[in-house]
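Quick one: structure tokens for this chain, please?
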Amino acid sequence: MDASANTPQLLRRTNLRAVLEVLRSVPSVTGTDLINATGLTRATVIAVCDDLIARGWARETPSLRTDRQKGRPARRFEFNESAGYVLGLDVGIATVRVLAADLSGAVVGGSEARFPRHGGQPEERRDVVTAAVDAALADAGIEASAVLCTGMGIAAQVTGNGDVAPGQEVAPMFDLGLSREFGDTRGWPLLVENDAKLAALAERWRGVGAGEENLAVILAGERLGSGIIESGRLLHGASGGTGGMGALQLVEGVGNEDGIAKLARLWGSAALRDGHNGRIRELVGPDTNRASARLVFEAAAAGDPVAVEILNRIAARMARVLALVSSFFDPRLIVIGGAVAASATALLPAMTRELAHYVAEPPRLAVSDLGKMLVPTGAVRLALDYVETHLLNLVPEPKR
């Protein structure tokens, strides 16, 4: 078959993509604007815009005539952000969160659900996820057929092929057959990624690290995990393990992957068992020795010396983790995210002081302001990146 036979089709798709990229970057444009931006002829630009309108990716906007204008006003075109939707999922140990967003990234709906106690069996967990997805679609008021891609973050290492890396104790909790459920049954591409890596995408897109080219994000709730962006690229490594924290067992003064919330809970509870009778006890009450992380932070804010000492221990330990990340990846900014992000603000001064002992030029430290939407926001960004790359393949050719 003559390879040149495809040349007109390839040229047409190249022109479509060039115009579409401009439309996606501005509120609206005229044909003249598109000519200047793409270098295409007027006839080609108008033909491409009409083609994109037929496909549903663009729409024509009303043009207002001015008093000085003669003849027909120039046609104006804009990207149709409602041409399709993406879903972003955060599948954790205990909870699943789902965001539905249009093609501009604006969130139009969402849902949240809890898994059965102690995690549940794979079949039960899959049912919870699919029900949460259906609830998000209903909340957004969109049909399943309008979804173009789904991104999903999981609390486990993910290979470069999007599979749950083997050999992990938590693997059965996340290897749920959702690629078949969403891909074969619903026709959605499913992109799976580690949750900390998606947190990094989210922070660079819409968080305190917006636009930062060299960024590390550490999820620091129950377990520590990090996502690394270097020169604008999300790092994965040979098997998806970049940013993993398993080596912390080798770090003196750290020893494992326990996160801020878990440490605060464990050390606060230990203080109660040892007879502490201060503000932590007042907040927890007399009938239990189990302290939550939130109450330990509250007690520290109220001046409880035991709680303050716990936070100082956590800050000193976290500074060693930050030093490790800083030494290996040299980010300009490290963002602390996850379930404890709001409370972790209290740790920033001590972590900053301690980090200076280990790193000659410490990166700036910050706390994420995306809250529990951090990972699903990154999953939305992952799905949008896929759609933007494959845009012209996601809908059929318009009928002529």
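The chain is about 40% helix and 15% strand.
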